[in-house]
Write a structure and sequence with these properties.
This protein has about 240 residues and is an alpha+beta fold. The chain has a single domain, classed as Porin (Beta Barrel), CATH 2.40.160.170. The chain contains four helices and 13 strands. Strands 1-2-3-4-5-10-11-13 form an eight-stranded antiparallel beta barrel. It has a two-stranded antiparallel sheet with strand order 7-8. The termini are far apart.
Length: about 240
């Protein structure tokens, strides 16, 4: 009997000690795990920074600065310029059997502000904006050899010199299509673009000397003929370097 009572007392004491013992265990807080779609959306909406680029185009060589607008990388603004001057020196051209010698200065280029719109999640883009055109052509032409009329030989200087000038602009809208981002998602990117400038009728000047001087009155005719050229095509290759996050 005494053993039973003692056993019961020991059991009661043990249960009381266990009830008073401090517990150090805490519930583990679980952080929700983001889904792949949420992670992709977070990356897609983060600010994408700015970049500088090198352009090699049919309208010249130049530099640009680009900045994304908004957090979804659908819009980017580009500001820059391109320029390419070169000279024609004693360039020979066969015009209806008569050899002409042409000398001139040709300047191609523009200063432009453009906006790229990426309608899809890839790098396809639609571009539009305005350009201040730097394109200007001035050239002179004269016959290479003396001209013989009957028994008379006429020297090239006596025949005369034709002076032609063509100037585009100055302000022209631009539209184009391309593939590639002006502000890379990583560090570098490459882009290709084709488009064109909408130009008003180019300004034409035409003058002649010597025996050709009467043809100077054809300046208006040339001006009217050039009025049909309202689109100046352009093709551009670009290499871009991201400078900020």
């Amino acid at each position: 009997m005494k053993k039973s009572i003692l056993s019961l007392l020991l059991l009661a004491a043990s249960m009381q000690l266990l009830a008073q013992a401090p517990t150090n265990t805490k519930p583990v807080e679980q952080t929700p795990t983001a889904t792949k779609a949420e992670a992709a959306a977070k990356i897609e909406t983060q600010p994408a920074g700015s970049a500088i680029g090198l352009n090699l185009s049919t309208n010249g060589v130049g530099l640009q600065f680009a900045q994304n607008i908004g957090s979804k990388r659908m819009l980017a603004v580009r500001v820059g310029g391109m320029y390419m001057p070169f000279k024609l020196t004693n360039f020979e051209y066969d015009f209806d059997g008569t050899k002409l010698v042409i000398n001139g200065d040709i300047k191609l280029g523009s200063i432009q502000a453009l906006v790229d719109f990426h309608p899809f999640k890839n790098a396809f883009k639609i571009t539009g904006g305005l350009a201040y055109m730097l394109s200007d052509i001035s050239a002179t032409a004269k016959v290479k050899d003396s001209v013989v009329q009957g028994d008379i030989m006429i020297s090239p200087d006596e025949v005369g010199i034709i002076d032609v000038g063509i100037k585009v602009g100055p302000i022209c809208p631009y539209i184009g299509l391309g593939f590639g981002r002006a502000v890379p998602k990583t560090r570098f990117s490459f882009n290709f673009e084709v488009g064109g400038y909408y130009i008003t009728k180019p300004q034409v000047t035409f003058a002649a000397t010597g025996m050709l001087e009467p043809t100077s009155s054809n300046e208006k005719v040339l001006q009217d003929n050039m009025s049909g050229f309202t689109f100046l095509p352009m093709m551009n290759f670009g290499f871009n370097f991201k400078i900020t996050k």
